[in-house]
Design a protein that fits this description.
Layout (H helix, E strand, L loop, with lengths): L3 E9 L2 H17 L3 E5 L13 E7 L2 H9 L1 H13 E9 L3
Antiparallel strand pairs: 1-3, 1-4, 2-3
Helix pairs in contact: 1-3
Length: about 100
């Protein structure tokens, strides 16, 4: 089974409230075996427009990544995130 990745590009408008998103999402990430490969580190724009925060999260499978995104825990966290940030989230299956 191929791994899958959440790729998120985010501009945070309210960093204090965004911390609540991170804490609320944590149980979903633990339950669905999320592994953070990149989280808000240094970036360099090579082409196009950038966002301030870039995150790559690895999951064991596409099914696990979708289950995390649709879980009750992450649904609650997503509601917080969407009120204090703008961005794009993409789910990508790994090449085999």
């Amino acid at each position: 089974m191929a791994k899958a990745y959440w790729i998120a590009r985010v501009d945070v408008r309210d960093p204090e409230t965004y911390k609540s998103y991170v804490e609320t999402a944590r149980p979903a990430f633990v339950r669905h075996q999320a592994k953070f490969l990149a989280r808000g580190g240094r970036t360099e724009v090579l082409e196009g427009k950038a966002r301030a925060r870039n995150v790559i999260i690895e999951f064991p499978s596409m099914e696990e990544a979708l289950a995390c995104y649709n879980s009750p825990e992450y649904t609650a966290a997503r509601a917080i995130r969407q009120t204090v940030s703008d961005g794009e989230f993409v789910l990508v299956e790994a090449a085999e």
